[in-house]
Amino acid sequence: MNKKLIHTIIILSVIIVNVFFGLPRVSQYTAVDETLWSYDRVPKFWRSIAKGNWRGTNLCDKPGITLAFISGAGLPFIPDPSDYEKLTRQAKTPEQLEAIESIYFHLRLPVYLFTLISLFIFYFLLKRLLSAKIALLSIIFIGLSPIILGISLIVNTDAILWILLPITLLSFLIYQKENNKKFLYLTGFLFGLALLDKFVANFLFPFFLVLIYTAYITSNYNTNAEKIEYFKKSMRDYLIMIAIALLTILILYPSAWIKPKELLNTTIYSLALEKIWPLVVGVIAIVCADVFMIKSFFSRKICSFISSHKKAFLSATIIAILMTIAFTIINTYAGMRFIDFEKILANPKTGNFLENFSSAFFPLLFGLTPIVSFLFLFAIVSLVKIKNTEITKNNKLMRAFPFVLFVFMYYIANSISSTSSTVRYQIVNYPIASIIAAIGLYEIIKINAFKKYFTGIKFYFLILFLIIISTVSLLKTRPFFLAYSSSLLPSKFMTNLKDMGDGSWETSQYLNSLPNANSLYIWSDKKQVCEKFVGKCNSSSNRERIGTSKFDYFVSSTGGARGTTPLKLTSSLRLGADIIDSRKLYMPNDYYDFKINIDNRENDFIKVVDPNSILSSNKKEL
Q1: Which DSSP state fits 606?
Q2: 539, 528 in Cβ contact below 8 A?
Q3: Residue 578, SS3?
Q4: How far apart are CA 520 and CA 554, in angstroms?
Q5: Which of 155, 388, 435, 604 could form a disulfide with 311 if both were Cys (CB 3.0 to 4.6 A apart)?
């Protein structure tokens, strides 16, 4: 059996395991903000296309166009989603519930299929950039990552971004390695798709510049003529890539046809560059002036200095990263005595630079499976030990450096924009970290002491072992993949502090199984429960509005306790003529008829509470 066939079988095996866990989940729950895309934005995009209303294709600031293109493939198979949006908090018939599930299934399925197909794209690019073995290892870590599987199951721009941004980076690195213009053009096209999906992709504008300088430092240019030509060619190609990306946006974004300013809104005027766009544009302009007007005088001086001290610069960068990681681990196991990562990540728009940056590695290190997390760290540590003569572009371990640098600079960029790196806000780092881990494992099996155990067919036994171990991780966290936390994380903590709606579907199914469920009136701090509940539902956080109602049940959750005005902070709540202690709604181990511990963590729960049980306890206390 030839290697090509074996590798295809391995990738298909990863896809089969992924489908086993993922497909049953496609129609079940509703994620936070998903209603905006399913009921409004995706249908609106295609209605606007059908009517020639090009301005109507401007959906939001994301801008979400790539998502709308992919998810919209399911629209012909469902009723008009806008007809069902108003039913969210109303009583529903079984037929209406079935229609809602059909809407989610058909709009999610194209996104999910796209993520499965992308594994072949990752393999092709990684094989070309690194090696077939590293590509296979990466596919296992990416395709069987609980968090990546979880984000792939919802209609959200991040479900596409975790693919587009990393493969754009891979394409650019292949272009640098091979000097192949085809990959330069591919990079521009993929970059345009990424920018059309979510403004976060703007990070690549400055990062690609950094890679141009990094590539120079790891190359050997002896004469000034060679150095001048390198920078001239690199910047010319950089501008060509940007032009292709902008052309891609212009072609695929109808709103830009009648309002060219949308090109700016998608790029330098986007939220990603809102605070620093003058700096980014200024740096690009200065570099271009230096390269094309004064023959790279400053670029050559700077890079020559760094090249002569490249080992020191590499070590300093990696040591800074390792110190940040070490602080993350120490602070976590010390019970977050120094900085409360959970508090920062639960409110991602409120922290300062230091808080946002210091907490960034927490969701990544403990959101990877233990083996991937260990290999990720091993690869980074290995970079410190690399010798000066080994710092070349042909060294496979050195090829991990751009990926490590990507993660580090991504955290810096997020922190500058006053955003903490929650699981979803750094979803692109999970496939990047998986690639770094694959490089780390490759370095281990190259060690003389281990090499003999992984040659020839023995390597495929390692592949089988990794697939089995990864499957076990998926089994343990099923069905709450996006809420996954590594077993290395102390049980009182969790990684995904921005609740995405896990447990809402299961809770609604319990409520629907109750006698006369369609006549029940409930209050839920998760509005996603309301959507799949047959009865009437209220998700208001206004105490006075709640106090005028008589609810049959309350639904409370850890995520709801972190809301902007959580009931947990109030000591009493009037319900008609009765008064209850609302804090009891959020006691994880008391007062519930039904409860789920998300990812088997006691502090991450959703439960159904009968208010009579609280009233009864009040009488006993009196």
Answers
A1: E
A2: no
A3: strand
A4: 11
A5: 388
| Dihedral in degrees, nearest 10, Cα atoms 316, 318, 320, 321 | 170
Count of beta carbons in the 10 Å neighbourhood of residue 100: 24
One domain for residues 445 and 512? no
Give the model's pLDDT for residue 617: 62
Facing residues of 606 across strands? 557, 596
What's the pLDDT tens digit per position in 481-506? 999 999 999 999 999 887 788 899 99
- Whether 459 and 344 map to the same domain: the answer is yes
Tell whether 89 is covered by a domain. no
DSSP classification of residue 550: -
Q: Are residues 556 and 588 in the same domain?
A: yes
Tokens of 604: 């991450």
Residue 133: C-alpha distances to residues 10, 140, 461, 463 (Å): 11, 11, 13, 10
Q: Are residues 281 and 348 in the same domain?
A: yes
Domain match, 546 and 461 both: no
How far apart, in whole angstroms, are the C-alpha atoms of residue 557 and residue 479?
17
Q: Which DSSP letter does residue 607 get? A: E
Q: Over the Cα atoms of the chain, what is R_g? A: 26
* Residue among 594, 568, 595 at smallest CA distance from 583: 568
Q: What is the pLDDT of residues 5-56, one digit of tens each?
A: 999 999 999 999 999 999 999 988 888 888 899 999 999 999 999 999 999 9
Q: Count CB neighbours of 352 within 10 A.
A: 11
Q: What is the DSSP letter of 198?
A: B
Structure tokens at 528: 């996603």
In angstroms, what CA-CA distances link 337 with 328, 329, 353, 521?
11, 12, 19, 42
Domain presence at residue 87 = no
| 473 and 512 belong to one structural domain | no
H-assigned helices in 417-496: 429-446, 448-451, 458-477
Spans of the chain below 50 pLDDT: 622
Q: Are residues 200 and 329 in the same domain?
A: yes
Contact 108, 81 (CB under 8 A): no
Q: What is the pTM of this model?
A: 0.94
Q: Over the stretch 241-265, which tens digit does the pLDDT of each residue have? A: 999 999 999 999 999 999 989 999 9
Is 197 in contact with 161 (CB distance < 8 Å)? yes
Can you tell me the distance from the alpha carbon of 149 to that of 480, in angstroms, rounded to the nearest whole number? Answer: 10
Does residue 36 fall inside a structural domain? no
Alpha helices by DSSP H, listed for 513-610, are: 527-531, 543-547, 558-561
* Edge-to-edge strand list for the sheet holding 536-538: 536-538, 521-524, 553-557, 605-609, 594-597
How large is the angle between the packed helices 458-477 and 3-22, nearest 10 degrees?
10
Please check whether residues 264 and 348 belong to one and the same domain. yes
Domain containing residue 478: 3-14+110-483
